[in-house]
Amino acid sequence: MTKYRIFTAYSNSGISSIQRLLKLSLYPIRFIKIYTKEARNVLDVGCGEGLLGNLICEISDAKLTGIDTDDKKISIANKSRVSKNANFEKRNFFELTDLHKYDFIIINDFMHHHTFENQRKILQKLSKEIHPNAKILIKEVGKLNSVDHLLTRYADRILYPNDTLNFRSSKGWIEVFSEFGFLLIAELKVKSIWPACRNIYVVKLG
Which CATH architecture has domain 2-205? Predict the structure, then answer.
């Protein structure tokens, strides 16, 4: 019922039923619920139209801040809000000065839209500015998961023609996490009826 409520909240958003179904099917809701159970402030980096952020507010009591640089997506997110605890803002991650206030940070299908250099800068900024006890959930496609990788690359080239797509293997992600002082505390692959971006990593400062 929770996902259905979010699905219907976006009925007039301009996002097609198929797109909403696809997005919602790939959110690891049970897994996220575990880590947001005690969270007070959650940050959704690259929140897009806010489906995941709204979903989090449906399953937890946390205050959710979603950020994105796309005006249209932020407008849709705020118009489709299902909770007063959700807030969506046009902000650039690299300009954030309040990372320390969040105890749970979600980076969903965001990193591979950045160069390898910027991926490292993102992790470096997080390592220096987050709260010592904060946890970070990163969802990405593994470069070695050939079908997932190829289909994600194909779809993203159509949807985001101006982006430079850069994928890492699971081993590559774990190595770069470690380089910036992050400890891997959980890893899994989201089950889905179709190939897509499904690898989940939860990390914290070691």
Answer: 3-Layer(aba) Sandwich (3.40)
